Amino acid sequence: MKPKLLTLFLAAGLGIALAGCAVYPVVQVAGGAMTGYDAVVMADDYIPKGRIQGGELCANTDKMLERRLRERLRNDGTGVVSAHVVARHAYLIGQLDGRANADAAVRTARTVEGLRLITCKFYPRVTPGEARNDAILLHAVSTRLGQTPRLNNADLRVEVIRGNAIIVGSAADSGQKTAALAIAAEVGGIVDVVDYISVMPAATEVAPRASAPTPRLARN
Predict the structure, then answer these.
(1) Residues 82 and 66 reside in one and the same domain
(2) Is 7 helix (H, G, I), strand (E, B) or coil?
């Protein structure tokens, strides 16, 4: 039986200095008894999408943001936390010892310039036996997803913690997303499927006549 989720609104005490301005975004937290710790930081209005350096407009790609985020989390040593970035939306997933470590991970993620949102799913640390079971389930889910032709062009990352399958990534349409979630749920031993899949249709191809602006560049 799932615990009742409590929603808390915490005024963030950490200011992010951007362009000389201190910002105090609000963090929305939902969780209960550390069975799951979810947080969303809405920072789109505060964190610039690009900046002028040396006369050129620079924009952080998801891969760059992901690498930077992973490095900072690893250096902070807050716990077993993995990071994924999709469309400047960061997803933190892992195992932590308590709420203080969860808060520290969120604070670290908020220092990465260019992120639009931060979503977290944290669980208490698993036992060695649970870790072995999770590894088996992870292999089963990943294999089934990888063997499904319908999902060939989907970008999906899977993690399993305490029997919960967390799927992060992007799908070309709602049909792909539904299929991925259904396939994961059908694996024996999976107790729940956490959906962090964004539907992002592929851009239509255009004739290479005039030079088109780079989609990821932001203009002020």
Answers:
(1) yes
(2) strand
Which DSSP string do the residues of 167-203 spell out, in sequence order? EEEEESSHHHHHHHHHHHHTSTT--EEEEEEEE-PPP
15 and 119 together in one domain: yes
Q: Which residues contact 18 (CB under 8 A, 6 or more apart)?
A: 46, 47, 48, 113
186 φ, ψ (degrees, to nearest 5): -80, -10
> In which domain, by residue range, is 180 found?
128-199
- Grade residue 202 by pLDDT with cuts at 50, 70 and 90: low
* Integer Cα distance of 9 and 14 in angstroms: 15
* Global pTM value: 0.68
**Which 3 state secondary structure label does DSSP give 29?**
strand
Pick 20 or 100 by higher pLDDT.
100
